[in-house]
Amino acid sequence: MSDETLAADVVRELVAEGAAGPLLAETEIGPTWYADRWWYVPVDGTDYQAAGPEMSAEFDRLKLRVQAINDVQAELDGRR
Fold it and tell me: Dihedral sign, CA of 7, 9, 10, 16?
């Protein structure tokens, strides 16, 4: 593990503690926000890696879309 990688079991612990947040709720593996940056699992399935600027920007856009979907769903469910 280094400043640019995190083991998957460490990320799971961070999510369970509430210190990290996955892009998609209820997912065990996927883009995760921790320590002011996005982390992702590369195609080869190794440890989580810190996302670069372009990938981080894409995760930010996706996070906004997920939030918009959640807001609409909450409204439809009468939770708002």
Answer: positive
What's the whole-model pTM score? 0.83
Q: Which of 26, 37, 28 is nearest to 4 (CA)?
A: 37
Exposed, middle or buried, 28 (CB in 10 Å: 0-12/13-18/19+)?
exposed
Quote the mean pLDDT of the chain: 92
Q: How many CB atoms lie within 10 A of CB 47?
A: 17
The closest alpha carbon to 4, from 61, 50, 35, belongs to: 50
3-state secondary structure the chain: CECCEECHHHHHHHHHHCCCEECCCCCCCCCEEECCEEEECCCCCCCEEECCHHHHHHHHHHHHHHHHHHHHHHHHCCCC
